[in-house]
Amino acid sequence: MIGWEDVYKVVVAMVPLYVALMLGYGSVKWWRIIPREQCDAINRLVCYFTMPLFTFEFTAHIDPFKMNFLFIGADTISKFIIVLVLVLWAKFSSKGSYGWSITSFSLCTLTNALVVGVPMLKAMYGPTGVDLVVQSSVVQVIWLSLLLFVLEFRRAGIEGATANIIVDDGALKPKATSATIIGSNNNNGFDDVNGGKDLEATSTTTLEIGDVGTRPPFRKLMKLVWIKLAMNPNSYGCVIGISWAFISNRWNLEMPSIVEGSISIMSKTGTGTAMFSMGIFMALQEKVIACGTSMTVFGLVLKFIAGPAAMAISCIAVGLRGDVLKVAIIQAAVPQSITSFIFAKEYGLHPEILSTAVIFGMIVSLPVLIAYYAILEFIH
Fold first, then answer.
1. Average pLDDT rounded to a whole number, residues 18-24
2. pTM score > 0.85 for this model?
């Protein structure tokens, strides 16, 4: 049963994140320590150095041979359910789009399990809860790698589709006009390219560009994506970490201390620098809630209702019962992954929504998770 001491432990784990957030915010907004033109460089430091090393260190120390594969299967099925729903929504709904589907997937499925999930599940279900939430974090690393692939694919498609834009008398004009794409002020300049369907945006910049048919052929597009992924250290952090976990546990090997020390010195800064970068991003926005109240509520609904609902369906489908079922549902309601914001910022896809989901999600999560725990106690 959860007591005040357990709640205090969760608060102790969460408060340092907000300290890092406020330091990042203040360094730009109040103290002017970091110039605005240098802010993107800090996010790239987190994206390409601290996060890949954090991913490697975390995955390299798990034992893949002792994982609960029924639980992992339920987690995987729940994500496939969400992917299927979002793809159908993007394809057949007039309001659907693939850019928003990517963001919605992040909101529904990606969690901050280590910071919030571990202390909460430990208080609720003891070592069993901790073990399962750590396993879900390992699997999430794989999904983050797949998310990285989708984001690179989107970026490559956008770059190919905009290749024919020319400048004439200071104005952007197309070589041939047949599609209008609404741009974004984020890093990549455009929200999405999918035959003119994805026309939502986070800004009001409208550019006439060349026919979407001028995008590179699929084979060439995939080649560009794989080249980008090959140059992205986040791709290696997951693959090498899990590979080492299998090898080390199969043959009882230990990582050389000089290698482990070199990795941990940067990886330990991962969560802190990510929150610091988020604080910087907040400082650059006109409002603290950059995405508005309605989108904040939408993100919280996806995070705390849609995600756990999909997990409940998949758990029942595979036959999970008892505490494992309860842990699976509650860990799906753990607040938003910080890494999802870092990727959103780097690839220019709704970072204002992901940052708001992280910041307010952690505040809301404590009463929500306790409510889930109380409700699930009636299930035997």
1. 93
2. no
